[in-house]
Amino acid sequence: MRDYIIRRLLILIPVMIGVSLLTFALFNIIPGDACVLRLGFGSTPETLHDCREQHGLNRPLFPITVNSDLPVIHLQESQYGGWLWDIIAHQDLGESLAEGGARVSTELERRLPITLELMIVTIIFALLLGIIPGMVSAIRPNTPIDWVARVVSVLWLSIPSFYLAILMITFGLLWFGWTPPQFGTGYVPFYEDPWINFQQFFFPALVLSVGIAAVIMRLTRSAMLEVLRNDYIRTAWSKGLRERTVVWRHALKNALIPVVTLIGLQIGALIGGAVIIESVYNLNGVGKYTLEAIIRRDLFVVQSLTLMFAAVYVLCNLMVDVAYAWLDPRIHYN
Amino acid sequence: MEESNYWSRLNRKRLSRRAVLGAGATIALGASAAAIVGCGGGNGNGNGGGNGGTDGTPKPHVYGPPVAGGSITQGRLLNVLGIDPHIDLTGLDIDQRIYSYLYSWKPFDETAIFNNFAESVEMPSPDHTEFIFHLRQGVKIQPQSDNPAKGEELTSADVKESFVRRGTAITAPDKRFPLKISGAGTTGPQHEAGLRAALQTPDPYTFSFKMTKPHVPAFREMSNPTWAIVPAKVIDQYGTFQANGLGQKAWGSGPYMLSEFRGTERIILTRHPEYFLNPRPWLEEIRYIIITEPQSLLAAFDSGQHDINGALMNRAQGEERMKDPDLVVVKAPTRFYPVIHFKTHPSQPFSDIRVREAIDIGIDRDEIVDLIWDGEGNYNGPVQWLQARFSLPQDELRTAQPFDPQRARQLLSAAGYEEGFEAKMKIPRVPGAPFIADLSALLKDQLSQIGVNLLLDEVELGTFIANVILPGNFDMAFFPNLPYDEPDRPLSFYHTRGVTGVGNWNNYSNIEIDKLIDSQSVDFDEPHRIETILEVQRMILKEHGPQITMPGGNFYAARWNYVYFPFELGVDPGEGALKDEEIGPEGADIYSTEEA
């Protein structure tokens, strides 16, 4: 197992370089850059050149260019190479081209806890709203409780999260004259004021979780139904075990393997969803930061965030793989 | 006839209540949105109407004497990407509360208000190229611990360094005015040297310069929020692009000090204790909370989390809140006026004036007023209707921009498009401005009636500017033009040199129009200048391009009634309120009675 984890972590390096190269290339293909946006209608060829010079956007894009058929290497002088070198040598993610030179690492320090908390609470909600109804639905098939669970899951799947978020805000205001306190105050960490923190994250996490919960619910139901038909479950019943023991100890653990896979895959969807939900609920996390950086063509911010998302995604999938071995002892990574 | 001194009558004028109030409604969005595309960026003042229903008869609102202390929270729709007043346009409304300026400006009367660092100005040169400012003594710089000029007095040297920086910074907007001071043809070392040589500081309280060429918009330009006076020592230490430099921190001499800046979350200003108008400013703190989702921003205001709403509401939303006696609702004209750009290259159908006219008269502007602006709107010519003296009368605009689909079809037939044609119209996707998509869809519907099938191509804003507008990469493009306080600026869109000075992105050139636009920019005989401006607009309207303008409407803004502005919309401010001549610079007079 240890060798497997080390191998997977080593694979992370080329994956991240590949992702960052691809992002960098794509970002430079789309028209416009931070200088074009800053100068706007005041752009002239001269001012654009000067601005790009000031921000290093006139440098070669990649560390290797071909000049007269000969490759020329300019590692740190290139935009990509310089950015990568700063990360490796100085653990510096660079600076924003738009926000008055704000350090990306400083912004991340503030914003990462918000997004992490949102994602953790969302996953907890998704598991609670997905696994338990899915399980109940499977052990009581074709009963009213099963029908309700299935209808609700389809409903949750079909409502876009941003729309649900706006509905919640609007009706919260109309019915109770209340909106989440995130609107008026900044982020309040859990250890400072658990009650305010709960109010800030309850609705965003709930909104973000329902889509994932619906998928988990349906998957749990089908996996449970399959597992409940297995011989070893029949054996457990025939031994006279209580329903609770059969379901929780013998059936659920095996039924959860595809659910765990799903959760790993949903991390990507969660990051995407966080971009929208953080904007609607004014949670100033990494998702909102990403959206803003893309809009204003803030190259190094986007680069750094993409790199971070790639790392999170790969690591989450590694954790999922490790979880398989825990859930199913038959799985070995030798 | 011209007065002995063109500007002399302006110096005596004072700020009116009506002109200033609109600032609260429009300034944040105006300045911020201007920044998105890096142009415009006027001081945001607007006029409008207020509470009391839709009949335009505002309810009297009794104002008591100012109350010292307290805090207000103001919602804000758009992020503040930087707070550097010479460079960043997204935070100009906030900069105005942090920095001193030479003077303020009342846009609708085109008058200067000497309520700030300059006490008066002389313009001795007969060609209106020379300015001598007499500066106020005892204006203290804010006392932050990291302020290199902490507690010192603001002087002419600070004005000079600020002018040099504003006039030469790469990303600073419109440099036509500073180029006329330096006499250089373009920006660069020669420009900076020329600027330094021209800007004179004979003593700490006198600042003067002489332009190499006359430039009518110059006097207006200097009151623009981008011409903030930043202490010279601050420029020296923090003036370059750097983390924790002027883009993220501020050390000024205005009524408020920057206490916290997180441009995508919140901005906190605290009272400058040694402000020259002491005991003003009245408030201890102003908090801006940035929420970029309009419905969430409005919800935050409605639930009482914000004292001033930063979301711009439509008529229905505004009128709904007008019924609430605890709210003060302000109606202000949108200063964004929608336009269609035509590419007039010979290979394009729009090089044929008959095609442009067909589209111009194929648009039902009254329907736009009804459907997009909820029945409240005005026609626009090349110069927006708000610039009252310089814009054509509404009747004339309505006659010049008729809705005549039958004649439109005839014109298209005559131009060889009996069956109509298909045209791609590029539009920007602007967060918080749904009227762009709505109006584009309406135009598509209207023009389909004359056989023009518009293919709408929505493009992300950054791409729109970079890849559509600036390189002229479009057949048709739709864009809301931004607030301009001086007619010279919108007219330059129709000049062969264009608004950037290096070429017209519509590929349009008309020498006669160029001559008139050039002549008005150096014409200090105001009645004559107005005549020229009106004449050139009539010529442009007959050209039906390269931009055709559409009506603009109103937006509504609101605040809770315990937040007192020293002026109300056309309403008697009541006993004890400040008189016009007592009103200070932006933000100094706001107070709240919530805690009193």
Describe the overall structure:
The complex is a heterodimer of chains A (334) and B (596). Chain A has twelve helices and two strands, in the order αααββααααααααα. Chain A has 334 residues and is mostly helical. Chain A has a two-stranded antiparallel ribbon with strand order 1-2. The radius of gyration of chain A is 25 Å and the shape is globular. The model of chain A has no long low-confidence stretch (mean pLDDT 84). In chain B, the strands form six sheets. Chain B has a five-stranded mixed beta sheet. In chain B, β14, α15 (435-448) and β15 (452-460) form a beta-alpha-beta unit. The termini of chain B are far apart. The model of chain B is unreliable at 1-60 and 569-573 (pLDDT under 50). Chains A and B meet through α2, α3, α7 and α11 of A and α2, α9 and α16 of B.
Which overall shape of chain A is indicated by the principal axes computed on the Cα atoms? globular
Q: Kindly provide the radius of gyration of chain A, computed on alpha-carbon positions and rounded to a whole number of angstroms.
A: 25 Å
What is the CATH architecture annotation of the largest domain in chain B? 3-Layer(aba) Sandwich
Report mean pLDDT of chain B, rounded to a whole number: 83
| CATH hierarchy class name of the largest domain in chain B | Alpha Beta
- How many strand units of chain A? 2
- Given helix and strand content, the structural type of chain A is mainly alpha
Alpha-beta content class of chain B? alpha+beta
For the largest beta-sheet of chain A, the strand count, sense and barrel status come to: 2 strands, antiparallel
Topology (SSEs and partners):
The complex is a heterodimer of chains A (334) and B (596).
Chain A: H1 2-29, H2 34-39, H3 45-54, E1 64-67, E2 70-73, H4 79-90, H5 104-139, H6 144-158, H7 161-176, H8 194-228, H9 231-238, H10 243-280, H11 286-295, H12 299-327
Antiparallel strand pairs in A: 1-2
Helix pairs in contact in A: 1-12, 5-6, 5-8, 5-10, 6-8, 7-8, 7-10, 8-10, 9-10, 10-11, 10-12, 11-12
Chain B: H1 8-11, H2 17-37, E1 71-76, H3 92-98, E2 104-106, E3 111-113, E4 118-122, E5 130-135, H4 156-168, H5 176-182, H6 189-198, E6 200-203, E7 206-210, H7 218-221, H8 232-238, E8 256-262, E9 266-271, E10 285-290, H9 294-302, H10 315-322, E11 327-333, E12 337-342, H11 353-361, H12 365-371, E13 377-378, H13 394-400, H14 405-414, E14 421-429, H15 435-448, E15 452-460, H16 461-469, E16 476-481, H17 488-491, H18 511-520, H19 526-543, E17 547-549, E18 552-560, E19 563-564, E20 591-592
Parallel strand pairs in B: 1-10, 14-15, 14-16
Antiparallel strand pairs in B: 2-3, 4-5, 5-7, 6-7, 8-9, 9-10, 11-18, 12-16, 12-17, 13-18, 19-20
Helix pairs in contact in B: 4-6, 5-6, 11-14, 18-19
